[in-house]
Design goal:
The N and C termini lie far apart (about 50 Å). The chain is about 40% helix and about 10% strand. Helix 6 links the parallel strand 3 and strand 4. The protein has a seven-stranded mixed β-sheet, with helices on both faces. Strands 9-12-11 form a three-stranded antiparallel β-sheet. It folds into two domains: about 35-60 and about 305-440, Aspartate Aminotransferase, domain 1 (Alpha-Beta Complex), CATH 3.90.1150; about 70-300, Type I PLP-dependent aspartate aminotransferase-like (Major domain) (Aspartate Aminotransferase, domain 2, 3-Layer(aba) Sandwich), CATH 3.40.640. It is of the alpha/beta class and about 475 residues long. It contains 16 helices and twelve strands. It is globular, with a radius of gyration of 23 Å. The structure holds pyridoxal-5'-phosphate. Pyridoxal-5'-phosphate (PLP) binds near residues 58, 220, 222 and 250.
């Protein structure tokens, strides 16, 4: 290297402006995802010796079905990059899955596989040019994706009285104001955070509005297979030409950490799939090869997976109903969950009692519950609700699903899952809800700040 070049290189090896923060404007102020943050905080507090009940992160407590794990073992040696859209055998298995589960025909060439559906949803927002309509409460990541991309989002608050459903007439009113505008609507059901689904009738009506205005529906049905009664219906059945169907392994297959999600497109949206595939080729290249081979087994289905799902649903349904009853007794209003592993209580009926304890927002509620009784869950404000609304999401997943499932599998599918079962096999979640309900019912003056551990009380820096 010449003297001149050496000098030039060393200048670049030692950047001078180490304190200068140059962030993309869209990324400024962006915090870690609330669900990821609450999980990391709970783990940190546990490591510090505090008792923390983890009702924050929405992660399946159940193990991955053994036949799928075995397929992963057999494919650990797979090391090559795979096709951007995903392994052909996997795309065929995904098409077969949607045909069997949802009664819709999917062309395997119109399936794309990604490292989690979250990544595919992000790339969809990067690729799509039109407006986005998102009913709230909604999953925590749709809005940050939009912020990163600089997308215009129209949030549509739904009402407790309407079971937090997007009403067809509301959607119609929004679109009628400017009928020709390109728009995509994100539907998610069974829903995170409220655990509620749409009826057949509601889906047909929404589909009719979507067809009238040629909307794109991104239907996030990642919890479809854990509808508690196994009655999930895809809106793609009623609006096949405009629905992108999102699924993946994370929830029904207990494999969130494997990172595999799928999108299935209709032929009319091939242009959007091609754009997402190009973005994928320039970013993640392809999804982990061993995981894709194993996922073929998951999407193929069969008796072992059907049995697994029957018993996962039994446990989740019983637990969800029990928790709902406890929270109602403690003064919250909430709907019986229909799927997934969430409830979304609204503590507005006891707002006065909470205000007397200096709890005025959903953030206050969750911060104080974590500080005072060690129960971690997320405020409604993380899901697009107004801060002063006293809603919160409880993910009832703090238990080891493996023993619970082993015992359940040995029972007949119609055996009721009683409280004794829940106390034994879902013990942490049950204890957390007991603690939370007792704490909610406390009188204002009993304590202002106590701690869950033997240490002196102290404030926890919470969430975002
Ligand atoms: C509603 C919803 N959609 C999508 C995802 C993303 O799932 P993954 O990226 O693991 O496929 C989640 C995960 O929590 C979710 O709750």
């Amino acid at each position: 290297m010449s003297k001149k070049n050496e000098l030039h290189a060393s200048k670049h090896l030692h950047p001078i402006h180490t304190n200068h923060v140059s962030l993309n404007l869209n990324v400024r102020g962006l915090a870690r995802s609330a669900t990821v943050a609450i999980n990391e905080l709970s783990n940190r507090l546990r490591l510090e010796g505090r008792t923390v009940y983890k009702l924050g992160l929405g992660q399946s407590p159940f193990p991955v079905p053994e036949c799928v794990v075995e397929r992963l073992r057999q494919n650990a040696h797979q090391k090559d990059y795979l096709e951007v859209q995903g392994l052909k055998a996997l795309r065929e298995a995904v098409a077969g899955f949607h045909q069997r589960s949802d009664g819709i025909r999917v062309d395997p060439d119109l399936v794309i596989v990604g490292p989690g559906s979250k990544e595919l949803m992000f790339l969809l927002q990067v690729a799509y040019y039109g407006d986005l309509i998102i009913p709230t409460p909604c999953w925590v990541s749709y809005a940050p994706h939009a912020q990163i991309v600089g997308h215009k989002v129209q949030f549509v608050p739904t009402r407790f009285e309407d079971r937090f459903r997007l009403l067809p007439k509301t959607l119609d009113q929004i679109c009628a104001a400017d009928p020709g505008r390109p728009r995509a609507v994100i539907l998610n059901y069974p829903n995170n955070p409220d655990g509620l689904s749409y009826s057949d009738k509601e889906l047909k009506k929404l589909a009719a509005v979507a067809r009238k205005y040629e909307l794109i529906l991104l239907s996030d049905e990642i919890y479809g297979k854990i509808h508690h009664d196994g009655n999930h219906v895809s809106v793609a059945r009623y609006y096949p030409e405009g629905t992108i169907l999102s699924s993946g392994l994370s929830k029904w297959c207990g494999a969130g950490g494997w990172r595999l999600g799928t999108f299935a497109f209709p032929p009319s949206l091939r242009w959007l799939m091609e754009a997402i595939a190009s973005l994928a080729s320039e970013t993640f290249t392809s999804t982990s090869a061993p995981i894709q081979y194993a996922a073929v087994r998951a999407f193929e289905g069969g008796k072992e997976i059907d049995d697994y799902l029957v018993h996962v649903r039994r446990i989740l349904k019983a637990l969800g109903q029990h928790i709902t009853a406890c929270l109602r007794e403690a003064g919250a209003r909430l709907h019986d969950p229909e799927g997934a592993f969430y409830v979304f209580p609204d503590f507005t009926p006891i707002a006065d009692k909470l205000a007397a304890r200096h709890i005025h927002t959903s953030q206050d509620l969750c911060r104080r519950a974590l500080e005072e009784v060690g129960v971690a869950f997320l405020p409604g404000s993380d899901f697009g609700r107004p801060p002063a609304e006293l809603t919160a999401r409880i993910a009832y997943v703090d238990f080891d699903g493996a023993p619970a499932l082993t015992v359940a599998l040995a029972q007949a599918p119609d055996t009721p899952v009683d409280e004794a079962f829940l106390r034994e096999y879902c013990a942490n979640t049950m204890a957390a809800v007991d603690r939370l309900c007792r704490w909610i019912l406390e009188k204002p003056s009993r304590r202002r700040r106590s701690s869950t551990s033997t240490e002196t009380p102290r404030e926890i820096s919470y969430g975002k």
